[in-house]
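Throughout our pipeline, every protein is held as a single compact record rather than as scattered files. Such a record has a labelled line for the sequence and another for the backbone structure tokens. The remainder of this section carries one protein's record, kept here as part of the documentation:
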Amino acid sequence: MKTIPRIGMAALLLVLAYSCKEASESKAEEIVTSESAADAVSSSAAVEKKDSNRKFVRTADLQFKVKNVAKSTYSIENVTAKFGGFVTYTNLQSHINEKEETRVSQDSILETTKYTVENDITIRVPNTKLDTLIKSIAKEIDFLDSRVIKADDVSLQLQANKMAQKRSSSTENRIEKAIDEKGKKLNNVIDAEENLAAKKEQNDNAKLNNLSLNDQVNFSTVSIKLYQREAIKHELYASEKSINKYRPHLGLQIWDSLKTGWYMLESIIAFVVQLWALILIGALGYIGYKKLNRKQQ
């Protein structure tokens, strides 16, 4: 008698052990998947090298599938803020692929909607945190479509802008000095002032270009496109009452038809009465014609 409980206990322990093993394997598989995704999206182009005189503008373009676009969007935004970045653009949309209505009862309709959720996100993050940010975002990846990471060396361009700015400043000083010392004729002064304004504009453009490049160097731009598997939504709602329910019964329709016909007859009689003068003239003409015809005979 004690053998059966012992066998049941042993079976229960085996089931529990198998369940724990499956859970641990599933968890381990998720960890491996996350690590693989992180390795897939990471790149040396996203790493800021220490003690380097070169300046790089780093950009990343990612497109991948997630399990839930809304949750992944919130997670990416939180990670961005955590690493000192900020979101410059986000466009979360649901695209309806198909919609169908099925009448399940006399007063109920089941609406079935098939839709896809997508989001385009653009974020800016400090260049030193770009690789860390990308690895953190990789945890949301269910399937990676594409990953493009660029590191454009702008060191020479920055130096060229500085040199152009320096030359422009030197030219400005010489022109200003020439205007003050030698500018006597009005036309000469106007031409010199216009030349000076053009040089100042060149100087400002070079300065603004350098500021823009430095901003792109200090903060990398990451463009992300998220999407999820097509989802299906079922919604049951009450159908509108048919207008046929408000139609009168047959007897009332016959009675209304009789009244309508009588009204039409009244209208015809009234119209004929309005023509009494023409009828009278016609009758008198007919009588006169008859009398004339008899006299001739």
